[in-house]
Amino acid sequence: MIMQHLFSAEGESTLARTLQRRPLLAFDFDGTLTPIVARPNDARLSKAVSARLATLAAHLPVAIVTGRSVEDVRGRLGFEPSFIVGNHGAEDACDGAAAGESFQAMSRIRARTVDMLPALEAAGVTVEDKGHSMALHYRLSRTRDRALQAISDLLADRDDAVRVFGGKLVVNVVPTLAPDKADAVRALVHRSGASCAIFAGDDVNDEPVFASAPEGWLTIRVGRDDPRSKAQYFLDSPGETAMLLDRMVSLLALP
Length: 255
Known about the structure:
CATH class of the largest domain: Alpha Beta
Largest sheet: 8 strands, mixed
CATH architecture of the largest domain: 3-Layer(aba) Sandwich
CATH topology of the largest domain: Rossmann fold
Number of helices: 9
Number of strands: 12
Strand order of the largest sheet: 1-12-11-10-2-3-4-5
CATH superfamily of the largest domain: HAD superfamily/HAD-like
Helix content: 25-40%
């Protein structure tokens, strides 16, 4: 299946039809609701996007499903969603027991990272330890080959308790047995009582949602950089995600 632009005749029809079913609205954060920035700490939702999401959240369940920690992303939203799931699905704000298990699985790689931190920093790698997962950023490195080698050296001796996947100039480490975003969104659909989901994301960790979405869900990839994506539709940028929120508000006839 080849992705089509959401703002096509077929995409608009699918969006309108899915909204009539009172879905869960679930969104990734970085690269989806807000542009990716060189320094992750600088990212914030615009006031306009935050206001649109607040309007939608007053009528439908809205979830933020992100690679950031729950605590980190909460202060960047400017509104209160129905649900926040962090660390690529590993950290559910409503499930402390599962979150604790994922935190423990990271202990060995965390200790190894401390030992190798000088070499990582010298290569331009920024380590973001989010408790339940870890992000190794190399966006700011002036020698990306050296940065990737340093990351490879760090991960060469990892055990089966963690798994690794890439992203946009980042390498992520998460507990092997932790839920992923697909698990998280399915759980949120059940928890919210929604009949289906509309999910938008932009990166490798969003693909499990796209690939496993049941019939009747609407999946949207922000960016057309991966022609192998399993998403049904695409948008070109977070700017078009803002347009999508406007379209949702209009189709639902919200004030």
